[in-house]
Design goal:
2 domains; OB fold (Dihydrolipoamide Acetyltransferase, E2P); 11 strands; 206 residues; 5-stranded mixed β-barrel; alpha+beta; single chain; disordered N terminus
Length: 206
């Protein structure tokens, strides 16, 4: 390949990256394991991951929820971060959806999953870093880190997943009954569903 062509490809790649990566902002506040506030007052939800929920009203939080927030604090509190966007730029609450990068190039989304402080949250639009996030989750699962340190109970004989939404359900869940044949996938356990990158339904909470 000619030197000029190589230089052109490098420049083109840099331009494409700049179109999806925002400038640096300092993290002002950490809400939980997957949501932060920047110095420009933008609330950012880490894309492609979901951490255990903290009950901010004083009730019982989910397993490892406070540990996930503490890990997020260690990674980003007071630090400068840049955002990289994907197909979806905002959620229904108006929060920015982004891959969050530290100045050393580390992606916080992946770091949290690798520590077992969150699970992968795929969507039907697809994620540019889906492979990386799923790899980090499988390593954390194998090493039983964080949320994977407690054995996943098998409460049902099987679970039903939806290839379109990447959610899995209990067999009796109303949403499970609406899954079409072409989109349906059956899992022997919750572990198998997570291994494939599926997330639990919020209604039936498998």
């Amino acid at each position: 390949m000619r030197p000029l062509k190589i230089i052109f490809i490098i420049i083109l790649a840099s331009v494409c990256l700049s179109l999806t990566r925002a400038g640096y902002h300092r993290v002002k506040f950490v809400y939980d394991g997957d949501t932060i506030l920047l110095d420009n007052k933008e609330k950012v939800r880490y894309l492609g991951i979901n951490s255990p929920e903290i009950d901010h009203k004083g009730g019982k939080s989910e397993f490892m929820a406070h540990a996930a927030r503490n890990s997020n604090l260690e990674f980003v509190k007071g630090k400068r971060v840049s955002l990289e966007f994907d197909k979806e730029k905002k959620d229904r609450y108006g929060r920015l959806l982004a891959y969050v990068f530290l100045e050393n190039g580390d992606m916080v989304n992946a770091l949290l999953i690798r520590k077992g402080m969150a699970h992968v949250l795929l969507n039907k639009q697809g994620l540019k870093y889906e492979g990386l996030l799923l790899y980090c989750q499988r390593k954390a699962m194998e090493e039983r880190l964080g949320i994977w340190s407690s054995p996943l109970k098998k409460e049902e004989k099987f679970y039903l997943g939806n290839r379109n939404s990447y959610r899995f359900h209990r067999p009796g869940c109303p949403f499970a009954k609406k899954i079409s044949r072409k989109n349906g996938v059956r899992f022997k356990s919750r572990y198998d569903a997570f291994w494939k990158g599926y997330s639990p339904c919020r209604q039936c909470v498998p």
